Fold these 3 entries.
Entry 1:
Amino acid sequence: DGGSVMGLLFEYIENIGTLDIAASASHKDKMEWAKQIQDTVNQLHVMNIVWGDVKLDNVLIDNQGRAWIINFGGGCAPDWVFEEIEGTKEVDMQGL
């Protein structure tokens, strides 16, 4: 019909843990993860997708040291962001 289909591809990510490991990571790794997460969130926002549940437990670090954001279930982490802006792009930016 000429329309487009949008979706998310889910795959198992072999990982070494969540972003909680950042406390013991090098400054270089932390800066790289921050850039990867910011770039991913920016790409999602271009497609009008909100991550929403921004917190350390929702970022996996894979076996190659790359950051992956997970959990798009529509939740909100009130310890990290204001609940009043839940479901908006602003909640992602505040969480970052």
Note: The mean pLDDT is 83.
Entry 2:
Amino acid sequence: MLNIGQYLHKLLLVHQEVGVPGIGIFKSERVPARFDEIKGTFLPPSNRYSFIQHEPVDHYLVNYISKTAGLNLEDANEALEKATVSLVTEIGNKGEIKIDEIGYLKEQEGAYVLVPFAPDSFWGLQPVKELISTPSTTSESEVVINADELTAEKGVAIQAEETQEAQNTFEEKSNNGKIWGWSIAALLLIAVSSFWWYTKNQSKTSVQSLPIAQHDGKETKPLIATDTVAIQNDTIKKVIDTVPAKKKPLIQKASKTLPYSIVLGSFKTMDLAIKQAEYFRTIGIDAFVLESNMPYNRKKICYGLYATKEEAKKQLEKVRNDINPEAYIFP
């Protein structure tokens, strides 16, 4: 028997949501590292689990079972189905079941509720107590320099170095002044030459670019740009597109003209089936609940109504690939 809890625990380290067919979707919320002021402890990052009772649309679990157990997808689906049937049966008998590494799954008022274990820390990290350190006092010896200890030879050397440095600074400023003077003169010459050349060429360009007017005695009317017509058409299209389409009802029934539909899943009660159909619509899947007057019949969640079985078969492969691999045609 598969240990679904172990598979869920590993998958939820990578994915935020992992679905179990026939039960619901398990979710993982990352809790960042934090400091507990009451205990004076740094807590590591952790995982917090939750659960929603919706028919899953992902295939993470069956693919992971197929890969780790060395089974093909068909055998992995069969093994997963047996495990989920066993879980549902045990919940029905005992009212709850322990899912390893995750928590206790209980049945309350016809719905499943998850009571998770304490948050699981990443990679086995443990809380760390805050370290309280006392600053150490150290005395530094002060170094005192007595100016009277400097010898006369050092004083003479310092004075000679200052005199030489002042002389070098004067010569450097003189040379820099000459360089700046020549640079400014060259820039002025280049600016005057550029202005004269630009003025000469601009006058030629102005004369050559004058348009030649043609008069035929008739008044010329301005033409309307084709872009304006395109913009008007686009505007009309946008206005038409913004008109809201009429939403299809959540509960529909088959008719004589459209008797066939594709079943995505089923629930015991109409309320659960409606909630699942609403969830499908929030993620872009136009699902609905097929109306049924049978009191003990499972309420089917369907996709599309078709006139013939052949039309339904054309859509069945796409539905199995994109939504649920176990979808089938009804009736």
Note: Residues 165 and 182 are 27 Å apart (CA to CA).
Entry 3:
Amino acid sequence: MATGAGLLWSSGLRDDAGEALLDEPTAKVLVALLGAAGTLLALLLQRTGEVRHQVKNSHGTNLRDDVDDTRREIAEVREIARHAVRAARKASDDTVQLREDVQAGRLETGEVRADVRGLRRDIGRLTDAINHKRETQ
């Protein structure tokens, strides 16, 4: 791309009279130099980007490894959070179920107590009836 731009630029260099400022061999050399400079610049920029990820930080690791480690840790934290949410939902469901079971148990206990009171009354009446019959005989 730089070579093409250099070719267009060098062919467009004209003086006020419209004559080319560069002769053809000089223009070709200039275009080749511009192309080489563009290629070197592109390679330098590419390598700088690669090196930037490999620069050692203060604790002796490189940025790419730190980013990868951070991503891995984030994934682990997300999984822990998902597990915690599932556990909290399960605990909430279990609490609701336990509350319902306790309520049902209280109702059953109340019914049993009422049955026991009724049985005690019946036993008391029967005992009174038996004692009354003994006294009357």
Note: The mean pLDDT is 79.
